[in-house]
Amino acid sequence: MAAAAVVVPVAYRNASAAVPDWLNKGDNAWQMVSAALVGLQAMPGLVILYAGLVKKKWALNSAFMALYAFAAVMPCWVLWAYKMSFGNRLIPFLGKPGLAVSQDYLIPQAFLPSTHYVDGALETAAIQPWYPMATMVFFQYAFAALTVILLAGSVLARMSIRAWMVFVPLWITFSYSVGAFSVWGGGFLFQWGVMDYSGGYVVHLASGAAGFTAAYWVGPRLKEDREEFPPNNLLLALAGAGILWMGWTGFNGGDPFAANVDSSLAVLNTHICAATSLLVWTCWDVLFFKKPSVIGAINGMITGLVCITPGAGLVQGWAAIVMGIASGTVPWYTMMVLSRKLPLLQKVDDTLGVLHTHGVAGILGGALTGLFAHPDLSSMFLAVPNSNGAFYGGNGGVQFLKQLAGAAFIIGWNVVVTSIILVVIRVVIPLRMSEEELKIGDDAAHGEEAYSLAGQGQREKFSHNGRIQLVESQIP
Fold it and tell me: Residue 21: which residues within 8 A CB-CB, separation 6 or more?
């Protein structure tokens, strides 16, 4: 009896150039969804989170800084920065700049050429996911844009918008691309085996170090703003925080570059750690301040998400809980206690505490990954063979030291390069708004206000000599 013919659905037949043999539709769909989720974290997630957390007069300016950065990164990314981050090696920590806009480049199968790993007689193939390069370019763009927007949280409520407009493309080019290539794109930290599953170093430690550095160079907010800076809309901030949290499903779930079992584990670990961290941070607030804080809960959520990111698909669920406890405790201590004792932390005005929520939590997550990374899970994701955390013996102790060394490089590079960029910019553009502009806020920076309610707020009035005067708006 003849076997029945197998009927392949039309959607899975190679009927045209749009469905090549190498295309995995499931992987491609998941990767584009993941990219969209990461993009939503920035726009509108961080846009409305920042708008809600700052003082009323800075709501519009803070939102616009995030919105502008999200747009400004894209042309830089496709014209030169993507290949600097994921292209052919130029030097050990940077790829060759080049265009990523042509059909011939974007339609073929995705390929990260510098991830080819060689160690004596040992070789592994370069990373080549089962979807087109266009998907990879968009996915990585979302991470780049998110990183510089996180950095903005350190300089809200005083940085000149014109200086910010120049800073964004320069920082993406000379700072972010180096970290991305070094750790992810096949650079020396990738080849050495530093673990950063989804951006604990490339995104969060970088934004924390660079944000704190930028806050130093830009200078502090007005004294009155530092002393009294009530959030203008906490419900709006909670909405932004919720988008940020749910968007992390794509942030960590998309980094295996496939819809596989490791991506599923990464998603679950992400939410385990975030929830644990939020609860622990809230408990510390209740214990020391006698009441739970909404802003504290948001911070605890963020530190948990950041902490799990370096090891989301590399650690077991119990380790995600331990990491959540740590991320709800250590950054809480540095932000709520240590920042009030150390002179440097008091001097530098980090508006939203990005150093603590992203920098401290990022290095904490990287170090804990060096302890908890399971060898079986590591083998599913890492190109460097036989990688594991210190708790699993073998070369785990060396791995922990590698994690610390990798963090030191990311911190050092971002501090130095961010400083150079800002020192160059201030030669031609003031980094900080004028005192008059700082007193007015949004209306001085944009000629617009977030809330147009009769009889509220201060308005700017230009006198005949061009000087800005403050006049109280009146109820008609």
Answer: 14
The residue assigned the tokens 């609860």 is: 279
Q: Which residues contact 229 (CB under 8 A, 6 or more apart)?
A: 54, 55, 157, 221, 351
pTM for the full predicted model: 0.92
pLDDT, tens digit (0-9, with 9 covering 90-100), for 298-334: 999 999 999 999 999 999 999 999 999 999 999 999 9
Q: How many helices (H) and strands (E) does the chain have?
A: 23, 6
Q: How far apart are the first and last CA of the chain?
A: 92
| Phi, psi angles (nearest 5°) of residue 340 | -90, -5
Indicate the burial class of 113 (C-beta count within 10 angstroms; 0-12, 13-18, 19 or more): middle
Structure token pair of residue 441: 């806020």
Check if the beta carbon of residue 281 is closer than 8 Å to that of residue 249.
Answer: no
Residue 35 in contact with residue 138, Cβ under 8 Å?
A: yes
Q: What is the dihedral of CA 341, 342, 346, 348, to 10 degrees?
A: -160
CA distance 291 to 280: 13
Q: Give the type of residue at 123.
A: E
